[in-house]
Amino acid sequence: MKLKKIACFGFGLIIFLMAPYLALGQEKVDIKMMTGPMGGSWYPLGGAIAELIQKNIPGSMVSVSPGAGIANVVGVEEGKTDIGFGNSSSSVDGVAGREPFKAPQKNVMQLANLYPQYFQIVVLEDSGIKTISDLKGKRICPGTKGMTGELLATQLLQVHGLSYKDMAKVNYVSYTDSISLMKDGHADAYMPGTTTPAATIVDLATTKKVRLLSVPEDKIKELQKMNIGYIRRVIPSGTYPGINYDVVTVGYFTHLVISSKLPEALVYRITKILSENVDRLADVVKDMKGVTIKDLAHDIGVPFHPGALKYYKEAGVIK
Q1: Residue 309 and residue 319: Cα distance in Å, rounded?
Q2: DSSP 8-state code for residue 234
Q3: What angle do CA 223, 212, 45 make, to 5 degrees?
Q4: Average pLDDT over residues 34-39
Q5: pLDDT at residue 23 in the model
Q6: d(Cα 93, Cα 85) in Å, to the nearest integer?
């Protein structure tokens, strides 16, 4: 009788501990999600994803909080959140344990890509800057230090044999402040990592004649050797006023990372919900428009969670 009571107690304890992560039935499912700063696109998109999960998984409750790409990866690793928004290239650095991460992020896995980001190099047409090598001795605005785009700026200069030391000045300021410097003639190049068309570039291009620089194909390959998360991108002609040519560059995905500790069945359900509701998410953030399930499942160098991988294989987008 005593052994029976112990066994019952043990079984009850297991059920109690598992309850938050059971994805089937009416059991309670508590999920934490970290997004981006208030005012950005990640926060409302995270809210929409949370609403879809709660609607389609009975008993689920998703709490959404502000965050940032690198901080969210660390949050997943440390168990502070279950799902986090990130930039694919910096998440790859996290999994590998490269700077700015202090160690490999072993609990971080891929859930889904959301939409593409583009590294864009904007110069004034009368600056005389026609190639990336021409940036030597110039005043540049690569964004605030520690941002994914700012890291890419350093690496892009590196594959061209340059560094910040070769610049006349490096302005670690916001994108809005960068445009002000460009307009006032206090900066020669603006280098954001963002979506297209970027409102800041449109603003600049409507008041000044600008040029967008392409990244040579061999340099793109060098960057991809540094980080598998970098993807060749093309900004089509006509994206910005006065830019009547295609611009070849590199970019990365805004994507979702997820804790390896979440059960496969739950992650399978979440992946299915995302895949079946891309159009609804595009109503919240226009950059999701045209995204397909194949895009969600694109391999960016972060290992897939088994639950996500199972769904993508069943959908036929991963072999």
Answers
A1: 10
A2: E
A3: 70
A4: 81
A5: 40
A6: 15
Averaged pLDDT for residues 25-43: 82
**Phi, psi of 303, deg, nearest 5:** -60, 135
pLDDT in tens, 242-276: 999 999 999 999 999 999 999 999 999 999 999 99
Q: Which residues contact 140 (CB under 8 A, 6 or more apart)?
A: 153, 167, 169, 170, 171, 187, 188, 189, 190, 191
In the chain, the domains with their CATH numbers are 18-115+254-315 (3.40.190.10), 118-252 (3.40.190.10)
Does 15 have pLDDT greater than 70? Answer: no
Relative to beta strand 83-87, strand 122-124 is unpaired
Alpha-carbon distance of 184 to 181, in angstroms, equals 5
Q: How many CA atoms lie within 13 A of 215 on its CB side?
A: 30
d(CA 86, CA 84) in angstroms, rounded, equals 6
Q: What is the pTM of this model?
A: 0.77
Angle, helices 42-56/264-276, rounded to nearest 10 degrees: 110
Q: Which residues have C-beta within 8 Å of that of residue 137, sequence separation ≥ 6?
A: 166, 167, 168
> Which positions ≥6 away from 222 have C-beta within 8 Å?
159
3-class secondary structure, 190: strand
